[in-house]
Amino acid sequence: MKSEKEKMLAEELYLASDEELVADVKRSRRLTRLFNSTTEEQLSYRQDLLKELFAKTGEKIYIEPPFYCDYGSNIEIGENFYANFDCVILDVAAVEIGRNVMFGPKVNLFTAGHPVDPAVRISGLEFGRKITIGDNVWIGGNTSVNPGVKIGANTVIGSGSVVTKDIPENVIAAGNPCRVLRQITAKDTEFWEKQQKSYWADATKKD
Question: Could you give all domains of the chain from N- to C-terminal order, each with its CATH number?
Answer without folding.
Answer: 4-206 (2.160.10.10)
